[in-house]
Recover the amino acids of this structure.
């Protein structure tokens, strides 16, 4: 009898990397690892230790805001967000977030200058999206007003929470978890509002 041909092997499904299909994250991801026991000495002199970083953040921030103005025209005429401008702004926002977190007593390790997060325990990321909304871009300063009001209110509340946390750490050597969690949300919202204001994303900032 004629030999029976062997069946064709079943096709092997292609393996697709999750990262290749994942949607870009259009809002800032920000988190800090909570450590209860804190360093009293660095907490005591925290405002002095952060002065060099404050100077860098100030001048780098002026540059990042100027890039936002350029990005405004780019989006207006092309409908797309320039990736190079976005990356420069994103580097700044990641650094300034680590500095503000250090000033807010979220961690004790001295943050490195620049884009290296070091051992700060801070997680920051924002994915680049090319397509941008011309309408919200044109009126971004107007759309952002409610968010800026919330930032102002949270900044006032955050100041008092940091002061109380400062005394709590000096007295007990520990950072109260409730105060830490509140400041985590404050810093997260601030980073999201800043990224929205600087045209890095079209996603309106959420407090969570």
């Amino acid at each position: 009898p004629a030999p029976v041909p062997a069946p064709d092997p079943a096709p092997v499904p292609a393996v697709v990397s999750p990262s290749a299909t994942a949607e870009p994250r259009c809002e800032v991801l920000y988190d800090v690892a909570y450590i209860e026991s804190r360093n009293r000495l660095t907490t005591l002199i925290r405002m002095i230790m952060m002065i060099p970083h404050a100077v860098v953040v100030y001048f780098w921030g002026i540059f990042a805001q100027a890039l936002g103005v350029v990005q405004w025209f780019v989006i207006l005429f092309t409908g797309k967000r320039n990736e190079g401008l976005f990356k420069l702004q994103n580097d700044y926002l990641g650094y300034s977030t680590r500095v503000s977190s250090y000033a807010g007593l979220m961690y004790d390790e001295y943050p490195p200058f620049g884009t290296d997060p070091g051992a700060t325990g801070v997680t920051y990321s924002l994915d680049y999206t090319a397509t941008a909304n011309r309408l919200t871009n044109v009126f971004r300063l107007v759309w952002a007003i409610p968010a800026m009001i919330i930032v102002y209110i949270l900044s006032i509340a955050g100041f008092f929470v940091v002061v109380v946390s400062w005394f709590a750490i000096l007295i007990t050597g520990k950072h109260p978890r409730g105060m830490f969690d509140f400041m985590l949300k404050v810093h997260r919202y601030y980073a999201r509002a800043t990224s929205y204001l600087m045209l890095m994303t079209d996603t309106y900032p959420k407090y969570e």
